[in-house]
Design brief:
The structure is a homohexamer. Chain A is mainly alpha-helical and about 140 residues long. Chain A is about 70% helix and about 0% strand.
């Protein structure tokens, strides 16, 4: 059973700016899932302390989403990728805005915004894995 | 193809100490893969600047491995888990030691140590996913 | 008895993962005292801004307690220690849980929880100084 | 004399993701100047310890350049800006790459690369101040 | 127009403890402006979530003000400066207190406190630029 | 004499900027001991990797010394203290310089510099505990 769960993660890995050449959109997705979980848990809990803690954690996790996406955009994707996927810049800009203040997950409890963020990350991940396959 | 890659990550998610109740050993694994990549890349590169940067990054990434494992050990696993898996404490202690100084990945370029660390993380992940299934 | 255990802190020192070989449970205790102080000060101050700031600081300080304890557990204590003190793993796991969310100091204003955390740290410190004396 | 120096900074200010609505490319420029200073100082100093410290600091400062630029790109610039300045995405992507590993300031001692980075930041700053004037 | 804005920043730059020998009070001022912006924006916004986020951000930005001022005080200013400007120590101590808890910007929404902090930073900056001119 | 000053550390506690009102020079001392340990361990170990890691850790620990001292200087000591101890500003400025670059512990392997730093911290601690006793 384990191998089924982990077959994919054999290829997953963390980014570093050596660069180690290993990237994975799962890192941004992980944090975005946590942002969404903070929102949903607050719906079922009217303790003001709990909501205050969730707000701070949601802020931090949204920041991590932005960071992981920025790293992919700058460090993984190269000029040929941007030529092949003309909407890539916009996708990253919209996704990181969705994890920020203003209308983003930092400033709202609306789960729909977290879902939009997750959908953008999936769009980016789809392109990411396509480029990995093309390079294989 | 994409869905096949991401089917598992539907369940993956980041930890927060709300707790949001979502954890994934992939975070520790991601960083451990990066540690290993720093080691292997240095084998093929005798630039002293490159090696110096790899050393620092390997140190930081090893620290992240320790952090993510500590979070699982303290925040995810509960007394019944430790009863059911008597070696769980030792597994975590050994895995975090393998990512530290002394004989760990911070203090060596030996890829075998990174592989031992990855193997320990897989052992922990196997137990983790078993408990998730049992709870489902 | 406590002061006896702290006589050794004349050799106080910080941990680093060189490892520099110097550790001290006082670091975790320092942060736990601050967590308790945040709780007690809020009792005497009904300014919502003050309470909100105390909540955030209590969260950060609780995190530091966990970090300092994890470092001791992984980096200072060795297999022979765990053999000699069979409850050591449990002590660390319970202490770090007491500094976390859920029932821990991050999620409550109950000073009794901070006192339980401080008591666990004292138990760990007692074992720590015993091992230092045994090694001297 | 002082007022002449600080007239501009009356408008400068730090970013926060409230958002507080205040941004300034000077933050990225400040760090890029530090990166360049690390490079030039090493030219005149053959102490290996000094060079090792400069390498680490150059790495950290380059990271800060990337961070400050990413914040501007995501949080300050809006869709109409990207329409009016079609090269804006590319400018930010190239500037942040110039502050990274691979061919960027993290991986080289070549002052020319720091100068290219500074020039890109000035290009971005020119557009930034144009948009601020247009909005005034 | 741009060159007029950026003429001064030709000399501005970030601190590092190499030391790279480059300092600028603008960094502290940038963060203090952000602290003030958090206060003023809250006046026009009675959303409790917005105020809670502003409180946390104001706390972080105030911390950055303290950090940048401490760096100037320790790393840039030398004994002859303290002899020439006998009130320099007091200026830094008062400015950093104004960015702290108690009566400082962390603990209040009173814009007058942020203005006092900004005025202190300007006093420090005036002395800073005088010493730079004297050294030129 | 030192042990007399550390008797109070039975009430050891960490600083936070609530302020929680609890401070202890032991935090700075802990990090300074670690800085010294990095230096002494390098004397007995000519492995270049070990020395490189020690250099980075020594840099980080020296930074922590500066931070903990700055906190005491700004947050604990009040105007009456500076009147009563006219050399207090200079003590803190010299101590933090000793933990910095240039002639400080970041830039040297000379244990004598770490000892000078430790001695300054003891001078500060002596004054600190006197003021605590006076306030008791």
């Amino acid at each position: 059973m384990f191998s089924r769960f982990f077959a994919p993660t054999v290829e997953v890995s963390a980014h570093c700016d050596l660069p180690c050449g290993i990237y994975d959109p799962a890192q941004a997705k992980l944090e975005a899932e946590s942002v969404k979980a903070c929102m949903t848990k607050v719906m079922d809990n009217d303790d003001p302390d709990f909501k205050a803690r969730a707000r701070t954690i949601k802020e931090e996790r949204s920041d991590l989403v932005k960071h992981h996406l920025w790293v992919l955009w700058t460090d993984y994707f190269k000029p040929p990728h941007f030529e092949k996927y003309p909407n890539l810049n916009q996708l990253f800009n919209e996704a990181t805005k969705l994890a920020g203040g203003g209308g983003g997950t930092k400033a709202t409890w609306d789960v729909a915004v977290a879902d939009q963020l997750l959908a953008k990350i999936d769009e980016i991940a789809a392109i990411f894995w396509e480029t990995k396959k093309a390079a294989a």
